[in-house]
Amino acid sequence: MVSNNSKSLPLDGLRILDLTVVWAGPYATQIFGDWGAEIIRVESIKHFPATTRGMVMRPTKEMVSQKGSLSAYPDRDPGERPWNRTASFNAHARNKKSMTVDMTKPEGQKVFDELLKISDVVIENNVPVSMDRINVNWERVSNVNPKIVMLRMPGFGLDGPYEDYRTFGSHMAGVVGHYSVMGYQGELADMTGNTLTADAAGGAGAALALAAGIRYRNHNDKGIFIEIATAENFANYLGDHILNYTVNNRLASPMGNRDISNAPQGVYQCTGEDRWIAISINSDKQWKSLCNLIGSPELAKDSEYSNAAQRRSLHDTIDQLIEAWSKGMDAHKAMRALQAEGIPAGVVMNEQDAFSDPHLEENGFWETLEGDETGKYQYASTLWKTVLTDRSHKRAAPRLGEDNEYVYKELLGFDEDKYAEFEAAGHIGMDYDI
Amino acid sequence: MVNGSKILPMSGIKVLDLTWHLAGPYGTRLLADYGADVIKIERPSVGDPSREMEPFFKDERGPEKSLLYQYLNTNKRSITLNLKSQEGKRIFLELSSKVDVVVENFSPDVMERLGLDYGVLSSGNPGLVMTSISNFGSTGPYKNWQASELTTYAMGGAMINTGHPEKPPLYIGGHIPSFHVGTVSAAATAISILGAEQSGQGDHIDLGAFQIWMGAIDRRQSYLMSHQYTGDISTRPWPASALGTGIWQCIDGYFMTAVGVGLFPRMANMIGEADLLNDSNWSTAAARSDPERLDESIALIVPWMLERTKAEARDAAQQHGVYGGPINSFEDLLNDPHFQHREFFQQVEHPKMGPITYPAAPFKLHLDNSKGNEKAASPILGEHTEEVLKDFLGTSASEIKNLRKGGVI
Known about the structure:
The complex is a heterodimer of chains A (434) and B (409). Chain A has 434 residues and is an alpha/beta fold. Chain A folds into 2 domains: 15-236 and 361-424, Crotonobetainyl-coa:carnitine coa-transferase, domain 1 (Rossmann fold, 3-Layer(aba) Sandwich), CATH 3.40.50; 275-349, 2-Layer Sandwich (formyl-coa transferase, domain 3). Chain A is built from 18 helices and 12 strands. Chain A has a 6-stranded parallel beta sheet with strand order 3-2-1-4-5-6, with helices on both faces. A 3-stranded antiparallel beta sheet of chain A has the order 7-8-9, covered by helices on one side. The two termini of chain A are 43 Å apart. With 409 residues, chain B is an alpha/beta fold. Chain B has 2 domains: 14-216 and 348-405, Crotonobetainyl-coa:carnitine coa-transferase, domain 1 (Rossmann fold, 3-Layer(aba) Sandwich); 246-334, formyl-coa transferase, domain 3 (2-Layer Sandwich). Chain B has 17 helices and 12 strands. Chain B has helices spanning 23-33, 67-72, 86-96, 110-113, 118-123, 149-156, 176-199, 209-214, 220-230, 260-270, 285-288, 291-306, 310-320, 330-334, 337-341, 385-393, 397-405; strands at residues 14-17, 37-42, 77-80, 101-104, 129-134, 203-208, 246-250, 253-257, 324-326, 345-350, 354-359, 364-365. In chain B, the strands form 3 sheets. Chain B has a 6-stranded parallel beta sheet with strand order 3-2-1-4-5-6, with helices on both faces. Chain B has a 3-stranded antiparallel beta sheet with strand order 7-8-9. A two-stranded antiparallel ribbon of chain B has the order 10-11. Chain B starts with 13 loop residues before the first strand and ends with a helix. At the A-B interface, helix 1, helix 2, helix 6, helix 7 and strand 6 of A face helix 2, helix 6, helix 7, strand 6 and helix 8 of B. Strand 6 (224-227) of chain A pairs antiparallel with strand 12 (364-365) of chain B.
């Protein structure tokens, strides 16, 4: 792509065995794959990972016809192999490889041992009881390869009453108090909806943990075992509220879209279907500019509105005035007009906004990749840029078992006979056999 | 490198930390948590603006009383330095030649204006990793735009999908947008450190909060791909819009579940309706996809939940493998037996405030001598100025006196 970006990627040469599922773990290996590590997803044709490669293995067309799905199929068609066509998986699995092995069988266990010997990292984010079943734990992996870095990221950690508790990010968020901070002011919790931010947080935290672990290994010439409980990682995103409770005995309550320091702050309706603009006023100067812009110049001079505390007490009135203006405005025009006055403002962006955004365009944020059973689609770029490296993606998401030949023949030295034997025994394949 | 008796993953890494407010300081705190020597550079006499941000210790304002600052700056050293003075700049340049990492989250162009951009800093220190954090990154039409945590999440994050379909999109709460950007900045920095240690060549990392959220797996990434597959524009889902999924009222609060047609048999078992699964309307995932099943299931789940406490629902969900959890307050969290068992909350003694209870750092190292999540209290403003200048640059006591007089430190 860019010719002067000649430096190799920072994680080139690292091999990661990836036993992650759903989102939090895969997000960590997405980041690692983006920056040069070889990610080998260790999957099985004898086990369908629900919610990782689709909610169900073979959904009917009717089942995937629903509008606005979080993980849709191309043209709403599950196709011959639906597990290779589901949006959530395909988005995170760019730059990754996929191999299959049945680790419930002894020869499958042996294959895993051989892979451990030639890998730098093994990562998983399953309920501990699932890993016990296939004997994946620190004792075993460090016996096979004393220099390996192991990262385990169960939702609630490897001990304690919730050890085997099954949760998604939204539930971990609930357990650690997130929904006492997030929600509509004065509304019941069941209006809040759910979020999966704990997964994004867990993946990013795990990427840091992996890098830290590899550095430990590089400098100490021995492996390390790291445990990141996704719920604990996410509780750190609420640390200031936790301290406000532990020190001041004060419990948070949801503020909707308002803020403790910016006033006014809110999300206001614009013209069109589900169009909104977010606005934050963080200085008296911005307030004056806003008053002029929304056609209420008299308020800029009104001493009852001159500081944030006053404006907070009159927030409902101010919201009505702002919305009276925004309702007649196109959201993008409103954003540009506000930004031109130095006011923090942003369109609540939907997918169309994202794909037509000039800033993302100029940053080369979208990259087209072609998948064998999906087609050509745009993938989000790496989360950050560096000056010296070419960050372009190498390939689209792998089909189940797509890299079996590479892993078994090139990495493990299987000949044709042995490969065929493993195919017959239900280890190697590209279709679930359940 | 050995830091006391501990060898931690980031031991030996020296970080010059110019960050302020939230995102940058959280990122460098994570590096400090795992062994990096983080030298926080603050403005003389006022320090990081977060020293004046809520919440405060017993509501007493003051530079050593902000709990937000205390939370974000544990395990760091603080020095004061006026970067706008020639002498301050000289000291910064000397320090930067002796460190592995420089992190800053000023507006784009500020470092260049100060004459301290990557080109300058790396010329005498090619292995340097420089991390720059901003709202929109350093290039592109929005690079000088204003942003708040709300507008960042609105533009980049999955805000259009957060909240209720008949209400405005909802903010993610607290300082979550900043903390996430901080975590990503720490991961980026650590990844580039690995590259720099391998090749001897550092790099300049350019992070924009907008881009970080646009690429986040918090729903956004999936919806962006789904949109290309179907043309659908996503919005906020109705509560309980998927089978067995919703926020349910219990005796003492709310309990949340996420099940779907595939795993619904587990929930049928949990609520004592296993017989349903013999009925052809319920026996297959396809049959369970009929919208009528959704209404029927809600009629079964609601009364079951209303008769149980959050803890009872949690135990039943765990027993049956149903994905879910209670909606807790921070009081619930602090009293939770699981988090107590894991010793997740730790007391740290602060010289001016006494003991403060913190959540432990995000991950545990299984090392003989450390879990890697022990904390030292956040520094008093300029607490380590003399120590750092003496250690790094051999500055004498009389020189330090003069610098202080001149307002440089």
